Amino acid sequence: MGIWQLLSVELLTAALGLGLLAVGLLMPGRERRGLAYVATAGLMGIAAVAWAMREAQGVVLNGYIIDPFGTYFKLLFLASAVLTCIASFDYIGRLPRGEGEFYALLVLATLGMMLVASAGELITLYLGLELMTISLCILVTYRKGDMKSAEAGLKYIILGALSSAVLLYGLSFIYGATGSTLLEDIGRVVAREGVKPLLGVGIIFVLAGFAFKMAAVPFHMWAPDVYEGAPTPITGFLSVASKAAGFAAFLRIFFGALPASHGLWAELIVALSVLSMVIGNLVAIPQKNIKRLLAYSSISQAGYLLLGVVAFSVLGVGAILYYSMIYVFANMAAFTAATAFFNEDGSDEIADFAGLARRSPLLAAVLLFSLLSLAGIPPLAGFVSKFYLFVAVIGQGYIWLALLAVLMSMVSVYYYLQVAKAMYFGEPPAGRAAVRVPLGMQVALVVCLAVLFFFGLYPTPLTGYAFNSAMVFLGQ
After folding, report:
1. Considering its fold, how many domains does the chain have in total?
2. Residue-wise DSSP of 184-218
3. Rg (CA), the chain
4. String of DSSP letters for 229-259
5. What pLDDT shows up at residue 266?
6. Of all residues in the chain, what percent carry a pLDDT higher than 70?
7. In whole angstroms, what is the distance from residue 189 CA to residue 183 CA?
């Protein structure tokens, strides 16, 4: 394949984002609603191109890697962006201005994630992360005049800048210790010379920077407030796509370039995983706001995903890939349902979901099954994804860690069922009509639900793709 063909997904995404920005400035305000459909259709078309290139391999621009591993994550990011666009139709359409810019920023954030997933060079990886982070900072504050949104944006900007500084500082140490920004060259130097003190410091700083992107404890302090204050569709996008981008970058650096340093950071990952699972699940129990509950759930999900890193194997990487894709559909389904409810009632409080099963059986069913999938209850796909992670970590001798993960999954069932209790056993407020769900959102919700059941009952197609991508990535 030629260079333009290998870069077609990124070029098309950049063209779509810039095109939406330009057209949004030229179109009259009342006609900008059509940009939502243009963005959705464009992202779906790009996803089709990425799927056609899922087996493509090559290195362009002296360090930009096109391989099945990167393409898998690009498909994940595109799926997240499409679902976010659909969830945003009514939500963003109610804002007095900025509709065109919203979808342009969403596409550009997706482009930043793509650059991260394929970066084989430190500077490219950092620029991709910054493109993603800056776009998300603006999207988080998109509810102009809303104090919670402003607070969320301020916290995300300040802590995001701090984490970026820590990450950049770590990358500079790695460059200073190895003399190269190319991951391939870094891997050769570390394999030949071992882990020097300067490189060890750099690795710890980089690990801290990525832990922020993953929302892993103790670098999670931004997540609850940002998730609560951001527009609900963006909260969903932030919880799945941004986290997946962090894991993609982590795997590129630590599995692709620094496997020889595994002994230095392995126990740190175990600690991050344990803290994230325990604190994320326990602190979620008293939450009364659905977005804060899902925020702490997202923190615990980072802990489960880190089990694949602890396993340090093809099975572990494949489990991360499979879990990440299933997590997209489960979490986006939950946030899309919450968005539909907010559009009608203007509330994110769990108590206000009382009687939702009678006001909207579809929303209640989707929210219930998506939460059960996040908890790992069969026959939903979340059970299969957790099963692979537990098997991977047990294979490396961490039986106690797998048992702790199972215990925390049982804890998560408790607080997820609190939401189900409100929806199915609570009394709806007097005089409240049925919750109106637009057709496009209904289709998206049904698709997410179908994905969770299909891959729960027949996971082979996705597991095959995920584990094949992992094997190519690790050269096995």
Report:
1. 1
2. HHHHHHHHHH---HHHHHHHHHHHHHHHHHHT-TT
3. 21
4. HS-HHHHHHIIIIIHHHHHHHHIIIIIII-G
5. 87
6. 96
7. 10
Query: Mean pLDDT: which of 15-29, 270-284, 350-364 is highest?
Result: 270-284
Mean pLDDT value across the chain? 88
What DSSP assignment string belongs to 327-349? HHHHHHHHHHHHHHHHHHH---B
3 state DSSP class of 289: strand
- Cα 214–219–224 angle (5° rounding)? 80
Q: Tell me which residue of 333, 347, 217 sits closest to 281, measured CA to CA.
A: 217
5 part of a folded domain: no
Give me the amino acid identity at 145: G
* Burial label, 27 (beta-carbon count in 10 A; 0-12, 13-18, 19+): middle
Residue 350 structural domain? 263-476
Cα separation, 133 vs 162, in Å, equals 12
**Separation between Cα atoms, residue 253 and residue 206, nearest integer Å:** 9
- Average pLDDT of the residues in 24-52: 82
pTM of the full predicted structure?
0.93
Q: 457: which 2 tokens?
A: 């009952």
Please indicate, yes or no, if residue 393 is contained in any of the structural domains.
yes
* Mean pLDDT for the stretch of residues 183-202: 87
Whether 65 is in a domain gets the answer no
Q: Count H helices, E strands: the chain?
A: 21, 2
Examine residue 135 and state whether it is found in any structural domain, yes or no. Answer: no
* 335-353 per-position pLDDT tens digit: 888 888 887 877 888 888 8
| pLDDT interval class at 228 (50, 70, 90) | confident
Place of tokens 């607070």: 151
Q: What is the mean pLDDT of residues 383-388?
A: 93
pLDDT surpassing 60 at residue 96 = no
In this structure, the number of other CB atoms found within 10 A of the CB of residue 461 comes to: 10
